[in-house]
């Protein structure tokens, strides 16, 4: 099989395009076995390098898949019972979930947005939202904004790759690598911050106000 034939089959929007984007992102947002960012980046790279996929539609489907997946996960955390919550929280550290829960009380919808953008931040946030019975009227718009920003961020990596490389197969591979590298760096930064939190100010060392002379 020639490279041109392989590339043509790989970029066929009807067979490996829009259904894979929507299905891959949706599945990975419910059962985190699919690297959803890589799906979005690869599709954006194909859209840029071949034109056989529409970039706007890739963004729309990516946003929709991420949003529905987050809403389903939140519903499971809120209404699924202890067994369902344990299934969602598998692999999560209890202290991390408690930390996010405390932040959630203080910042609300902003934590929903940040949690979607940070690797390994989405599940603790949705667990906290479910445990705190966060209202749907606030969660739905916040999670939609989060999914939109997330899709745009990862699509940009694919657009950069597709704009540099004319070969769609190379552009897809480079976009996937860029997404995985970005996620790895953010994971390392987040892990380092959790291991070495910023020191809290020492009240005893704070200067005391001077009284009247």
From TrEMBL:
- List all membrane-crossing ranges: 20-48, 55-76, 109-132, 139-157, 169-189
Top-level taxon in the UniProt lineage: Bacteria
Output the Gene Ontology cellular-component terms.
Answer: plasma membrane
Q: Which locations, inside or outside the cell, does it occupy?
A: Cell membrane
Keywords for this entry? Cell membrane, Membrane, Transmembrane, Transmembrane helix
What Pfam families has UniProt attached to this entry? VTT_dom
Domain named VTT is located at: 44-158
- Give membrane topology per the record: Multi-pass membrane protein
Protein family per UniProt: Belongs to the DedA family.
PANTHER family named in the record: INNER MEMBRANE PROTEIN DEDA-RELATED, TRANSMEMBRANE PROTEIN
The protein in question is named: Membrane protein DedA, SNARE-associated domain
């Amino acid at each position: 099989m020639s490279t041109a034939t392989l590339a043509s089959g790989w970029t066929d929007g009807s067979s490996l395009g829009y259904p894979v984007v929507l299905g891959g992102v949706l599945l990975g947002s419910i059962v985190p076995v699919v690297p959803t960012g890589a799906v979005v980046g690869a599709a954006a790279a194909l859209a840029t390098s071949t034109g056989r996929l529409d970039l706007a539609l890739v963004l729309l489907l990516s946003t929709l898949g991420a949003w529905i997946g987050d809403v389903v996960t939140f519903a499971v955390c809120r209404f699924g019972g202890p067994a369902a919550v344990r299934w969602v929280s598998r692999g999560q550290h209890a202290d991390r979930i408690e930390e996010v829960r405390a932040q959630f009380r203080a910042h609300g919808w902003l934590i929903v947005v940040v949690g979607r953008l940070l690797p390994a931040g989405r599940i603790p946030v949705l667990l906290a939202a479910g445990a705190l019975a966060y209202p749907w009227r606030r969660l739905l718009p916040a999670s939609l904004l989060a999914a939109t920003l997330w899709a745009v961020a990862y699509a940009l990596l694919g657009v950069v790759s597709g704009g540099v490389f004319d070969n769609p197969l190379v552009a897809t591979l480079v976009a996937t690598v860029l997404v995985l590298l970005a996620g790895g760096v953010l994971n390392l930064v987040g892990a380092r911050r959790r291991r070495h939190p910023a020191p809290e100010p020492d009240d005893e060392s704070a200067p005391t106000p001077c009284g009247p002379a």
